[in-house]
Design goal:
The protein is about 45% helix and about 20% strand. The chain has about 250 residues and is α/β, with parallel strands linked by helices. The longest helix has 17 residues.
Length: about 250
């Protein structure tokens, strides 16, 4: 598959995927299966709830695959102090191994236009992550936001020092492909856009549409299926910018 003259082969697609397991009833076997799939496909990370970080970090030891854990999940309404403590405690399990943090931002603060407090909440988590050389993604929950709020959130998150802005947890409504484009246009070039929370229905097609709209990271619990479907059905797909003809 080629999008804007970039080839998305199996390796490149896998390197974009945060393979997630964020359901409350996940078992040890479920987590280990996700890690086995991550090792097989060489995903970018396995994204889990904090309690599973020690197991995931051990299972991924030596692979270079990140242990990604969520903070303030799924509501984002816990206090900044609580988020910082949760990050600091979970980072201990990584013991210097590759990691990433996906934090849910405080949506109420954003809607109140208290941008200073909203940015501070993110920045405090970024500080802890940076000290451990672990990057942070800010989850915006775009289905709950207007386009102007999405733009404001991207600006605040970038100011706070995040590596990525991320659409959704999947719990606050499914993101629209249009949200990805709004985020890509609003965020600075050095801040990535993660498309997540889009569910399992037509997931490969949605992943492709997200990439076209500007996503450079995908969060999904079904990474292997997406890769296999794109490889099987969309290997020859080419989506490039149209050539403009002079009138």
């Amino acid at each position: 598959m080629i999008v804007r003259n970039v080839k998305y082969d199996r390796k490149k697609l896998a390197g974009m995927i945060d393979q997630s397991l964020l359901v409350p009833d996940a078992t040890k076997r479920d987590v280990m299966d996700r890690c086995a799939a991550a090792r097989q496909f060489v995903f970018r990370s396995v994204c889990i709830n904090p309690s599973w970080a020690p197991l995931v970090a051990t299972e991924l030891e030596g692979t270079g695959i990140e242990t990604c854990f969520v903070i303030g999940f799924p509501l984002g309404a816990t206090s900044t102090v609580s988020k910082v403590h949760e990050v600091a405690e979970t980072l201990k399990a990584l013991q210097g191994r590759p990691g990433a943090i996906d934090m849910v931002t405080n949506i109420g603060l954003l809607k109140d236009e208290d941008y200073k407090a909203y940015t501070h909440d993110i920045a405090e988590v970024v500080k802890v992550g940076r000290d451990a050389m672990v990057g942070v993604k800010a989850i915006l929950e775009t289905a709950m936001l207007t386009d102007d709020e999405i733009r404001a959130a991207c600006g605040c998150a970038a100011e706070a020092g995040v590596e990525f802005v991320k659409t959704s947890t999947g719990r606050g409504g499914s993101p629209n492909i249009r949200h990805v484009a709004v985020m890509r246009n609003a965020a600075p070039e050095n801040v990535g856009v993660k498309f997540s929370g889009f569910g399992n229905c037509s997931a490969a097609e949605l992943a492709i549409m997200g990439i076209v709209a500007g996503a450079n990271r995908l969060g999904t619990p079904i990474g292997p299926q997406i890769i296999e479907e794109i490889e099987t059905h969309y290997r020859e797909l080419v989506i490039n910018e149209p050539q403009h003809r002079n009138a």
